[in-house]
Amino acid sequence: IRQNLTNYEILCIDDGSTDASAKIIHDLMMQYPYIKYYYQRNSGVSAARNLGLSKAQGEYIMFVDADDFIKSNSLRGIYQKAKKTNADILVFGGRTDNLLSTPEWVKSAFYTKNRTYIGNSETALFSENGARPSVCNKVFRKKVITDCSFPIHISISEDLAFLLMVFPKSNIIVFSSRCIYCYRLTNESSAMHTIEKNPLYFFENHLCTVEYVMEEWKNAGFLYKQLRFLKEWAVSFLEYIYKELDNDQKEVYKKRLETVSQTLDIPYSELIQKLNQVHLTEPFSIIYALFPIG
Question: What are residue 12's DSSP bridge partners?
Fold first, then answer.
């Protein structure tokens, strides 16, 4: 609310909250006419984001998680940077609410450097800090993402699926080192905490994300042009969770992984060998909950 830009709107999407969120928002709307409220029955984060996208009127769109916030008086600088550079996507930095306990995945997700990519979106997407996995540290030109939406059948990594659709459609991608976004870090929301509790559910969602991206890239004509990048990403995205499955669970996914290996032009035996490799590095992936209130 405390921003130095006047012509903007805040869209609050209530994904079936049962607390006082609606009243709080309506009270704020009386003071700030640029706040807009939309309610939907609890349908999940992707459906909530898609509703927000369908209602947004701005030239540029950004997302803020229900638990998080952006720095006061930062919108004008973001907007001016996007306009000056003619960016289709502007990526900015962020931090957690506990600087002493910031995990490695946050550093990859939010510690950005000043970079500009023109016509080589795949390098920006797969090589640059801040490009993945969150949509919350970015400004998107609305006309670039008009035909994009969040997949409602994916409940983990829906951000990543969206980004893998948007980046190939973008010509100018600008990274800024300015730290604007604040991510609230809690143990309960930890991706690793979720993996330990239910690796099968986590792997199912990651595999669905890979299958979704492969199909969408194939239909859009991206797949075979950027096969090397997609192959490397898909293997690294699946491997650290695959190792948490037992042999019976792995057998359940055999046919689907055979299809993945064929699409990515990797022999099945080689794919399984890669998925079973042991690495000491900390993986990064996180569950995001954008827009839903309560």
Answer: 37
| CA–CA distance, 96 with 104 (Å, rounded to integer) | 12
Structure tokens at 48: 């909530």
In whole angstroms, what is the distance from residue 81 CA to residue 78 CA? 5
The pLDDT, as a whole number, for residue 235 is: 96
What are the start-end ranges of the H helices in the chain? 21-31, 45-55, 75-85, 104-110, 121-127, 158-166, 191-197, 199-220, 227-242, 247-252, 254-263, 268-275
Buried/exposed code over 196-224 (b: 16+ C-beta within 10 A; e: otherwise): eeebeebbbbbbbbbbbbbebbeeeebbe
Q: Which pair of tokens denotes residue 125? A: 């997407």
Say how far apart CA 257 and CA 81 lie, in whole Å.
Answer: 43
Residue with the two structure tokens 């993986």: 283
**Token output for 54:** 């369908």
| Residue ranges in 56-178 assigned as alpha helix (H) | 75-85, 104-110, 121-127, 158-166
Cα dihedral sign for 13, 16, 18, 23? positive
Beta bridge partners of 15: 40
Instruction: Tell me the pLDDT band of 186, cut-offs 50, 70 and 90.
Output: low
Strand partners, 39: 14
Residue 153 structure tokens: 């059948």
Amino acid occupying residue 234:
A
pTM: 0.88
**pLDDT tens digits, 47-60:** 999 999 999 999 99
Residue 100: Cβ within 10 Å count: 5
Distance CA 245, CA 240 (A): 10
Distance of alpha carbon 214 from its chain centroid, rounded?
A: 17
Q: What is the DSSP letter of 276?
A: T
